[in-house]
TrEMBL record:
Originating species: Bosea caraganae
Family: Belongs to the short-chain dehydrogenases/reductases (SDR) family.
InterPro entries, per the entry: NAD(P)-bd_dom_sf, Sc_DH/Rdtase_CS, SDR_fam
Protein name in the entry: SDR family NAD(P)-dependent oxidoreductase
The keyword rRNA-binding belongs to this UniProt entry's keyword annotation: no
Matching Gene3D superfamilies: NAD(P)-binding Rossmann-like Domain
Entry-linked PANTHER family: OXIDOREDUCTASE, SHORT-CHAIN DEHYDROGENASE/REDUCTASE FAMILY (AFU_ORTHOLOGUE AFUA_5G02870), SHORT-CHAIN DEHYDROGENASE_REDUCTASE FAMILY PROTEIN
A GO term, aspect molecular function: oxidoreductase activity
Amino acid sequence: MRLNGKTALITGAGSGYGAEMARRFRAEGARVACVDLNLDAARQVAAEAGNGAAIAVQCDVADGPSVAAMVKEVDAQFGGFDVLINNAAITQHPSRTGRTPEAEVDRLFAINVKSLYHMAAHALPVLRRVGGGSVINIASVTALRPRPGMTWYNATKAAVISITQSMAGEFAPDRIRVNAIAPAVGRTPMFSEMFKDEAEADAAHDRLVTTIPLGRLCRPTDIAAAAVYLSSDEAEYVTGIIMPIDGGRLVG
C-alpha cells in the first residue's frame, strides 16, 4: 500500500504500460482515473482494478478541449489528483527519415508532444491546488540511444525528455516533482502497430532481444514498478531525472 491515499490520472490506460500501471497503482492503494481514447478498453481496465476506486474517462490527448473536459470530470469525481502519468503515445512505422508521410509526422508530434502542453495547461493547476504531487512522463530509451528508421518517433521522445527537465525546474516551487521513465521496447500493442503482420513482429522481436544485455524486451510490470516508486513518498526528493528501464541497452 505504498500509494495509499493518493489519486492518479493515467493516460493511455486502456492497454500496455498504462493498463499495467493502473492495475499496480490500485494494488498499492491509489485511486486511479484510467484515461484512454478507447473508452471500452479503459472501462475494462478500471473494472479489473475494481473496488469502485478506479474510473474510466475518454479523452483525445491531442485535443485541448477534450483534455480540459477529461480533467474536469476526473476532478469532479475524485476531488483532485496528485499523480499525473502522461503515458498515451503512438509509434511510427519504420522508414527512412525523408519518407515518413508528413501526416504521420504531424500525428506523432500532436499525440506524443503537444499532449504534454494540453495536460500542463489543464491538469497541472489541479496538482497546484492540492499542494503538489508527482508527474511522470513516459519517454523512451530511443531518445537517448536512437535506432535508425525511427527518426520522428525518437524525436518526439527526445522532446519529452527536454520538457520533463524544464518542467521539473519550473514546478519545483509548487512541490510538483516531474520525472520521466525511458523504457526499452516492449511487446505491447504499440509494438504490433509498427509491423505489417505477426511474422514481421516476431522477427523484429528476436532481433531486438539481441541488443539488450538482460536478454528480453521490457515488460509492463517493469514500467509499473518504476512508476510506483516515482509516485511514492520514497521519491519525495527526486525530480528532473530520466530513469531508463532498458535491460542495459544504454550500456550494451
